[in-house]
Amino acid sequence: MISERVTGALVIRTALPAEAGTIADLHRRARSTYYPDGLPEADLDWAEAWRGSLERPDGHVLCAVAQGRIVAIASFRTPDGASADTVRLFQFHVDPGHWHAGIGTALHAACVEEWRADGKRTAVLDVHTDNRRAQAFYARQGWIPDPQNPPAEGDHHLFLRFSVSGE
């Protein structure tokens, strides 16, 4: 488990439950860039939802901190019903004001490092079809369409897979 990783002026560490509100605000800002008609579940208490994620004993949330501010987050865990060597990346967001600074790449590398240390072989995620920027990012990191989970008719998500072990 990564407690803290320093990459230049960027610190990547485990997020704390007390940071749920800050993380929820970053999450809303990032998601608003790819939902043209407004955020779904706008009435959801995202701070409470993040607090639940941060307190899950089977989950993990990493955050990237630059100049004392959280600028990116990644939430992952073994999905229910999946094999123990699979991890699901549930949320991965970089604050839009910090795009193209290498923060996402550094955070992704920290995730992969932790997944390898935890014995994970495969990572999965889903990405919104309108989020072309994220799709391009994931492709650059080595994610591919998941052949075991093709998109269903009318679904607005693409399912991707990543070989953690590098095979």
Q: Uncertain regions: pLDDT < 50 for 5+ in a row?
A: none
Shape assignment: globular
Question: Strand-and-helix sequence, N→C?
Answer: EEHHEEEHEHEE
Gyration radius over CA: 15 Å
| CATH fold annotation | Aminopeptidase
What does the largest sheet look like?
Answer: 8 strands, mixed
CATH top level is: Alpha Beta
**β content, as a range?**
25-35%
Determine the N-to-C terminus distance. 22 Å
CATH level-4 homologous superfamily? Gcn5-related N-acetyltransferase (GNAT)
Which architecture name does CATH use? 3-Layer(aba) Sandwich
Number of helices: 4
Helix content: 25-40%
Judged by helices, strands and strand pairing, the structural class is alpha+beta
Trace the largest sheet across and list its strands.
1-2-3-4-5-6-8-7
Average pLDDT, to the nearest integer? Answer: 88
Q: Please, how many domains?
A: 1
Number of extended strands: 8
Write the layout of secondary structure elements.
Blueprint: E1 4-7, E2 10-14, H1 20-31, H2 46-55, E3 59-66, E4 69-77, E5 86-94, H3 103-117, E6 122-128, H4 132-141, E7 144-145, E8 157-163
Parallel strand pairs: 5-6
Antiparallel strand pairs: 1-2, 2-3, 3-4, 4-5, 6-8, 7-8
Helix pairs in contact: 1-2
